[in-house]
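FIELD: query
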Amino acid sequence: MEGLWELIFTPLGVALFLGAAFFLFIWNSSKSHDCWEKLGVPYVKPKPFFGSTLDNTKRPFHENELIRYKDFGLIYGHFEGAAPLLSVADPELLRNIMVKDFQFFANRRGLKTGDTITESMLQLLEGEDWKRVRSIVTPTFTTGKIKRMMDIFISCSKVLVDNFRKVAEKGESVDAKKIYGAFTMDIIASAAFSTKLDSHNDPNNEFVRVARNVFHKNVNYRFIFYLLFPRIMRLFKVPIFPPEGVKFFTDVTLRIIEERKRTGQKRNDFLQLLLDTAEEQKIEDKSSEKSDEILNNYESETNDQVFKNFHFKKSILFHSFFF
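FIELD: result
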């Protein structure tokens, strides 16, 4: 026995132990990499441990999806580490997933970051929380409400045209990506945060600087690490987005909301649309609670049990009482 322990703690023993541990680690991370082959589904060849995620360090996610779609067709498999994923581009199947069988596919991928703000994003919410927030957000994208922000779009477009004109007058070449990126930033700042910018001519503005930092390329790496090492990332509290940026935009948004509540001021921007819709939702919820109370009182006082066999929608029931 003593000889065995002596062998283990020799350089050879340590090397053998580390080699065996590494082999088991790779085997465990790769043991599911044959699942799509067994099912006869075309798939992206995975790398040990990383799966198919390394491609996302070279190109954005959507570009990889497009390349894979062209290479493998409407349905193909890939891997995030050891986890098998299926990408679907078939319109009929997507219609079933998104509409007919939506109850089975309601939630997106789970991504627990430990950050309250990030986990409250619509893309990461699940179940009733997702349904509640979506019911608030969806009405803001109707044609009529988007038209209310046309003045913002027109104002930012005039700044864009002026910037193009200045470059043209100088006879210089133009970096289209940079100038349109500034235009996009101006619209987002004005429509969502009530902040008027000229990002092209004022690139050192704090809003512009923080926004660029938040969506810097390394965010892609952080997201990949969260997919591969979720527990480790949560353990060390590594955020997906830079904390400085999240805090900045959180503070700006809360400050604007408090100011509008205090002064009663309104503006035709996206934030105001969300506030108005949330208020409408609150009124609707109160109406639903009132209709429930009326129904309960009515059922407790009447001997007629016929109405108990009907399952009226709350809103319809409330309006029937109203009329």
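FIELD: remark
The beta strands are 75-80, 83-88.
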